[in-house]
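Ticket reopened. Same input as before:
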Amino acid sequence: MKLPNNNMQKADGQAVPEPTLRRLPGYLSYFKSLKINNIEFVSSSQIAATFKMDATLVTKDLSYTGVKGRTKIGYSVDKLIENIVVFLDFNTQENAFLFGVGNLGKALINYDGLKQYGLKIVAGFDIDPAVIGLQVKEVKIFGVDDFRDLSRKTPARIGIITTPDHRAQETADLMVAWGIKAIWNFTPQSIKVPENIIVENTSIYSDLAVILNKLNR
Amino acid sequence: MKLPNNNMQKADGQAVPEPTLRRLPGYLSYFKSLKINNIEFVSSSQIAATFKMDATLVTKDLSYTGVKGRTKIGYSVDKLIENIVVFLDFNTQENAFLFGVGNLGKALINYDGLKQYGLKIVAGFDIDPAVIGLQVKEVKIFGVDDFRDLSRKTPARIGIITTPDHRAQETADLMVAWGIKAIWNFTPQSIKVPENIIVENTSIYSDLAVILNKLNR
DNA sequence: ATTAAATTGTTATTTTTTTAACAACTTAAT
DNA sequence: ATTAAGTTGTTAAAAAAATAACAATTTAAT
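Engineering reply: fixed in the latest deploy. New output:
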C-alpha cells in the first residue's frame, strides 16, 4: 500500500506496528547467527519455522525495512542484517545516562550487547557516596551535582532508571529537568512525566506473568 | 460473555488476552504504592489516567481477576491486590534454576522483587570453575553435574537462561533434558525446544527498538 | 525450451484488541 | 425523599494485527 519501495530508505512518517518493531531485533539476532555460520540466504518459511510463526507475517515484518527477497532463493542474510540495523537506528549511536548503579544498573553497564544495538551508556549516577567516583567498565559513576558539566561534554537523550522502585518518580523528575527526551524505566513503578517525554517500561514481571499463566493453565 | 462470575475463582480453561496479562503486574505495582499511601479505593478512571489508557480497558482487564468495584466508590485497593496476586499465581511460589551466573544472572538472583512475585531462584549453575561453589545471596552456584542431587531436593519447573548468547541453545537442551517445563530466555537468541516446552523470551532490545523508533520519528 | 516447484509480495479475510456507547446502580448532596 | 453526578460493567463498534489466499516470478530440473 503506502510502503516506501525506494530501497533502503526509512518510512519516516509511516507508523510501524509496534509488534513488528518488537519482533525485528529477534530476527536480527537470528540473522547474525546465520551469518556466523556462513549461511548467505534464508527464506521466510525458514524464519517462520524458527520463530514458530506465520511466514506471511515474517515477510510483512521484513518488508517494512525495505529489504527485497528473491523468489526461490530467499533473502540475503547480509542485506537483512543491514536493513534491519538501519531501520531500527541501531547503527547511529545514542547516548544514555543511567541512574541507580545497583545490581541491575551494573549489569546493564556491563552488557556489551547494548552498544552493538545502538545504545551507549556514557555515565552512571547514584546518590550513594560509596558508589560515586567508582568506575564500572569504562563508565564513571557521578553524583547528581555533576550533571551540568557532564551533559555539556557528552549530552544524552535517553535516561535509564534502575533505582529502587520508590525512587523511580523522583529520578524521572530529575531526568526531565535535565532535558532527557526518553526514559527507559526498569522499575515496575509507573511514572508521571510531561506529554512530550517518551517512556518505555521494561517489566520482567509481565514476562513472568505470561510464563506462570501458561505453566498453570 | 463466558466470564466466570463466581468471585475469586480463576478462569482456568478461559484464555486471558496476553496484553491483559502483561498489563496486570503494572497495575499491581501501582496498587501496592497506593496501599503504602493508605489509599483504600481507586476508580478505573484514576487508574486509566495514571497509565494513559482507556478506562474501559482497565475495567475489562480487572474484571478478568474477578474483582468487583463499587459504583461511585471504585475498587478496594486491598481486594485489587489480592485478586491480581491470586489470578497471576504470584502467591504460590514457583522454583527456578538459573543458568549463567554473569552480571545479569547475579542481578536477577539479587533482585528481591522476584520472590514477591512468585518466583524463587533456588540454584545457580555455571560452567566456569571460578564461579562454581560460590554463593550469591542465599543461592549457591553449582556445576552441571550437581543437577541430579539438587533436583531431588528442590525441584524446579522454570529454567532461566542468562548465559552468553552463543550458549543459549545448549543450555536450553540441557534444561529440557533436566525436565524443565518452562524456559525464560534472557538472551536475544531464539532457541529450539520440543513442542510441549514453554519459552518466554525477554528481549530488552525490543524495548530499545521501540524507544529509538519513537525518538527518531 | 519447457515445466514444475518454491518463494516472494500483495490483497482479502478473520481474529484479536481496543475504544465507544450506554444501561444500571449507588452514593452524596440538596 | 429526591435528584444529580460519578462509576461500574456490559454490549456494540472500530481499529489493529495476524492469518489465509493467491498471483507473479524465478530458479532448477527435465
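Residues 41 and 76 of chain B are 5 Å apart (CA to CA). Confidence is low (pLDDT under 50) at residues 1-13 of chain B. Please confirm and we'll close it.
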